[in-house]
Structure formats: structure tokens, C-alpha cells
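Build the 3D complex.
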Amino acid sequence: MRVVSQYIAIAFGLAVLAGASHAVAGFGEPSPWQIGLQHANTPVMDSIIGFNDVLLYILAAIAGLVFVLLVVVMVRFNTYVHPTPSKRTGNWPLEVAWTLIPFCIVAFIVFLSFRLLFFEEDIPRADLTVKATGHQWFWGYSYPDHGNFKFYSEMLNDESRKPGQPRLLAVNNDLVVPVNKVVRIQVIGGDVIHSFSVPSFGIKIDAIPGRLNETWFQATREGMYYGQCSELCGMNHSFMPIAVRVVSEQEFNAWVEDAKKKYAQGPASRATKTAGLESTGANE
Amino acid sequence: MGRTTTTVPGAGAAHDRPVGWRRFVYATNHKDIGTLYLLFALCASLVGTALSIFIRLELHEPGLQFFTNPQYYNVVVTAHGLVMIFFVLMPALIGGFGNWMVPLMIGAPDMAFPRLNNLSFWLLVASFTMFISSAFFGGAPGTTGAGTGWTLYPLLSTKGHPGPSVDFVILALHLAGASSILGAINFITTILNMRAPGMTMHKMPLYVWSILITATMLVLALPVLAGAVTMLLVDRNFGATFFDPQGGGDPLLFQHLFWFFGHPEVYIMILPAFGIISTVIATFSRKPIFGYLGMVYAMVSIGLIGFVVWAHHMYTVGLAADVQAYFVAASLVIAVPTGIKIFSWIATMWGGSIEFRTPMLWAIGFIFLFTVGGVTGVMLANAGVDRVLQDTYFVVAHFHYVLSLGAVFGIFAGWYYWFPKMTGYMLSETIGHVHFWVTFIGVNILFFPQHFLGLAGMPRRVADYPDAFEGWNYVSSIGAYVAVLGALIFFFGLAEAFYRKRHAPDNPWGEGATTLEWTLSSPPPFHQFEVLPRIK
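Done.
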């Protein structure tokens, strides 16, 4: 019995900790032994964390109540201390209560949940649009507002990675966006379904062939932000990260001028591009 | 088998009673078929567990250690999911305990369609053979086996896997589906028509109710899966483009069809466990179940709502905001009947006289783990939060808490509860307790840290992960090894029981065990209830 209650205490403590711990996580990537969500770098992720914290306290309270009740019945109503069982088989008021009260809690959660959902889904007027295309197994990015230049973004292997760049997350060509601007990102799949995800921006949207999805973010801090493909897409699913470099507006404009020249001839041809299957040209 | 307590002498003489291998290959007796299902699930669980150990060994540390080609990791993940769902959980919970206990609990001599029952089992064996074969045929270019995930999403399962292995998986699903539909029809007919005189629907044991609801869901959900995978088969082999945008199709159509089956499927796996837990808790609290009608209609409403929440598996595919909002609300409503069940179990124990026999430990463990899995499900139901959790290890942790731990703990509760009835031997309480504690501790070390990994953003179905995820993955793998130790203790306990041959009385659990199977001998006679019992 003591083992049970200790375990519950530990699990409960961890759950509460998880609510408060996102503050200690790294800015745009996970950190070792992290137990909560990644640090927020967009207003959307701020709202997700806010809602998640409320939810976590409600749910921890409900789970805690169940565990406490379980421990109480095990202690009070085991056969040694309570040899004669009661024969009670129902209690209408109680049963109505434990139907209606959870229903009210659910209604409250639904209310908060809708607020968050519609905040995420109403895309504000975008300052710029970028397009991401998922391929086996790399991302292609294009900038339709800036002459529609396009480039590929591939994971760096152990040889090409510089010190300080995270393994399995760093890429050769980052997706570059300006800070504090509303970026609309359009996402599509080039061969099979992939998923574009940047946890610290609070976005994840599937890259589906034949379907142009979109979402948005407004990064509030300059720096590197990482995500990974989040839909099983074949052999190298684990090795097609998303790296977003958020820079100042001046830096961004300078980068755009460079990129326009660098990618004027279209994306550099890739040997691995056709491994697996050909991309559906119509989607590019 | 010679002892009979309730049969009239000589009454069974007219029945054919094959012996030797014929008894099982030609089996029409519900108890023999139940035993076959349980043995089948036991064998398949060895395969499924071995696959999960490959997964945890690979994820034990960063980098690729065992799978130099990560596609084979995908194949193992896919096989682990499909084996556990179709060849372990469903056969054990529905085919195994269902076949064994439903006729006994409703006072029927056998199932309504004994030969259909036989076909249902052997189709499953054919299905499993077909599924195992898929591993040896070409899949993705240059590899063998289907690495599509158990969800078989196109276009990965069409263009991404040009080899025939996915066809084998599709046909295995067809066979397993046919097997389940036949079984389900059998259960529905038996339960509706063959209850003993006086056993009205509202007097049926909750386990029988759970099987009735499950069987109804199977009959409604599996044809949709069959349709979806047939379209996949046609896309793959005959140039159709149901799911290919290049021919005007839509990959999302498959996801809608798949999850219209897939979400009821998760309740199909957990409802029979609910039934077992209700039975076990009432028995060992020596008290009738609290709020019987509430329990029945909670299960009915879980079954109904289960059919209208499927797209909560698809929040990130680009559904319109209003559609997501509907699925958020509908999914969250399921928390209410689920809460009714949890509170009723606790209320059943409240005021009882609880004996901590092995089945009761598993049942209490079930409530604990199912509650954790339930509240994380409430988190995932919110589309706004699911944005960061979809396809991460948080989802893996959630569904392992409800299925791997919930449903499996239900199976073990049922196993320890009915083993004396099925075999006539008592299992060792000591070994059972050790098995429980080792498993309980192991699986929590295994799956609880996966919540943290998911919150931090680790995607699921990856063979390698960024170095920051190393710590909790290491802990999780250690938990897996502990859980396997638990499984070994289980088999040791089994061997010990058959070696010691401790004789089981008709009712080893005392006055709390009120269902009809405890009025029979242990094991029951080959044909029981030839004179139907009357229920007051």
C-alpha cells in the first residue's frame, strides 16, 4: 500500500512539474531531461502553453481524486478492517452528480479549447508567404512574394555538421524568416504525406500531395528553431528536420537578395532526390 | 473432464466428441475454441513483445544500432502495432474469454453457430500466416516488409511501397476482418437468443454486455475497413486512383475511412476489458456492481459516440476550423461515460470487503493506468493542444496507457480470474503478486517518460532521435526490460500451476463470484447446462 501511495505522489509531482517546466527548456529545440512543452516563441505557442497549463491542473486534480479514492477504499474497505460488505447497489443522486459535474467540467474545457482553436485557425493578414514542400526525405522551400526562388533543405550528416549544430536537426539551407512578421506558410506533399512541424512555434500541418494546407506563425525572437517531419514517410522519416532561422528585417532582406541570385537557376539538382519515387511535378 | 455437476447423466451422449488433434482442428465446442484463441493470442503476444523489444533496443541510445536501414525499423513498428491489435488483444479479449465465458455466463450450452465459430478461429490463423509472410516480400524499394505504420496511409502504402508486401498485409486484414465479423455475428445471436430463462437483458453480467456492444461495433466498423483496404488494393494493383491526387483521388479519403473503423476499434479493444474489470471488482469486493444500469448505458454510449469522433486522429491534416471544433466537443463528451465507469468501480469497492487476490490487483492497476490514459486523452482531444502533440511520443504514451496497459491489465485480470475455471488448477498467488508488481512498475517506467518526450516534441515512429531525447528514452528502455521480466514470471507461474496441479474448487473466489460459470465444475463439463438454469 505504501508503495502505491509513494508512486502516486511521484507521478503526481511530475505531472505538476511538467506544467511549470517549459520555462527551463531551450528556446528552439528540446533540452536533455525536458519534461514539458518547448519554450514559446510565437503568440500561438504562448496560448497553447497557457491552455495546456489550465488543462493540466484540471486533469491532475481529477486523476488525483481518483487515486486518493482508490487508496481510501483499499485502506478502509479491505477484508481485514471491513469483513462484512454492504449490499448497496446504487444511489441515484450520486450517479446523477458524477454525470453532471464531469459534463460541466467538459463544457468548461470545450469553451477554452474553442478559443485557442479559433485563434490558431484564423490566419491574420500575412506579411509574407513561404511555401514548404515535403519530399522523401528533405524539404523544399520557395518564396512566392520574393520572385518565387526555391531551394532544398537537407539534414547535415556527422561530417558536415559544425560544432554547436544539433545532430538530426541542423540542415544545409535553413528556412529564413523575419522576426515579428506574420508568416503564412503553405505546405504540400511532393510524393507521400509528410508533416511540417515546429514545436516552439506551436504549429504542425500535414504536407499532403494534391492539397495545399496553410498555417501561420509570428516568431517573436531571433534565433534557430527546429522541428522534425511528423508523419511516417518511409526510410529516412527520422532524417528530414525543419530548421527555421528567424532574423531581423534587414538581415532578411539581404538574405533574400543573395538567395535570388544563388537560386536563380532553380534548386541545385540532388542525387538523392529520386531515391524511392519521383516527385509529382504538379505539386512543386 | 469427467466430473459433471449439473448435467443429466447420459444427456451428452448424442453429441460428437472428437479427441486428439481433431478435437481442436474440427473444434465446435465454445470452450475448445476459446482455448485455441487464448493459445493463439499467447503465441502472437510473444511475437508482438519481441518486436517491441527490438524497438526499445534501437531507441535505447541515440544513433542507429540495430537497424542499419531504418526502413526495417518502420517494418518492425508496423508489425508490432498490427500484431498486438489484431492478433493479441482482439483474440484474447473477444475470441478467447468471450467464447469461453459468454455461454457460461448466460446459461447457454454453447454458441449459436458452432461451425462458424470454428471458421472464425481458423481464418485468424490464416490471416496471421499471411501477415507474417508479408515480411518476406518486397516493400519499399530495396527492402522487404511493410513499413507503413499500422494505419497504412497512402501514398506511402501505395507509391511508397511498390512491392507486394502491403498486398499481403491488406489480405491479412481482410481475413482477420472476416474472422471478427463472423465471431461478432455469433456473439450477437447467442446473447440475444440463448440466455437462460429469466435472464433478461438487464440481468446480464456486465462482461456479456461488453461483448454484445463490442460485437455490434465490430459488425458496423469492420466493413468500412474492408472497403478502405480494398480501395487501397485496387489503387496498388489495378491503376485506380481513389487515394492518388494525380488521378483526382484524395489521400485524406483513406484516413477518414480508416479512422471511421479505427476509432471504434480502440473501444472494441477496451470495452471487453471494462467488462472483465467490472466482474473482478464486484467479486473481490464481495458486493454487487454499483450502478449496474449506469454501467450498461455508459458502455452503450461509449460505443455510440465512438462512431462519431474519428477525425480527432486527423487534426493536423488541414480540416476546417468548424469541423475540428465539432470533433473536439464530441471527443471530450466521451470523458463523461468513462468517468461514470471509473466512479462506479470505486463505488463498488466502497463499503465492500476487498480481498487482494491476484485478479483484483490487476483490476485496481487497471483503474490506475486507465485513469492516466484517460486524462491524457482529454488533453489530446483538444485540437488546439494536439497541434503540438499530434504524432509525438505523447500520443504513444497515451494509447499505451489505455491499450497496452489498460486492455492488457484487463486480460491479465481475466486470466487470473478464470484460469481455475478453465483449467481446474489454481495459479500461485505469490507468483501472481510478483508478476503484477514487476509488470506494474516496469510498464510505468516504460511509458510514463514517453509523455515527457512527446511534450518536448519527439516525433513517433522514428528510428533515431536528437540527442536531447536521450535521457528519457534510456529510462523508457529500462522499463521495457523490466516489463519483459514480468512476462517471464507470468510464464513461470503458468508452468508452476500445471506442474503442481493444485485442484481448483468449483468456486475458488467465494460468495462475491455470483455469475453462472461458478456454479459449474472446474473445469466445466464438455457440454454444460443441458438442463437450463433458471434465473430468479
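The longest strand of chain A covers residues 128-135.
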